[in-house]
Amino acid sequence: METLPRLKAEIWVKALIRRCETAGAQAMVVRRGDASSGTVVVKVSRLDRTASVFVPTRAGDGSLVWMQATGAAPVAEPDADAYIEKQRKFDPDIWVVEIEDRQGRHFLQEPVN
Q: pLDDT at position 102, please?
């Protein structure tokens, strides 16, 4: 299988924020990770004290997919933040992008499981 060049994390994050803003949602970098290769964690706050957290993973064929790390349903925002903090302690190079959207849209272009 051919490996495609990976987009730098910083560029990917900027593109995600732009997609969010174009659609009328707010997005911001809450934690800046390694500019080249940091993993990106996406938190979607519904502005009702609930949130969802999405983390990247690989499908069986090696393609990028996103996993709903906190489960299919939104969780209390402190629970989402605790999950992110645990990941940050495990990987100090992660990026955290928070999207504020009442509809709960994540704006990720890859499949979400």
A: 96
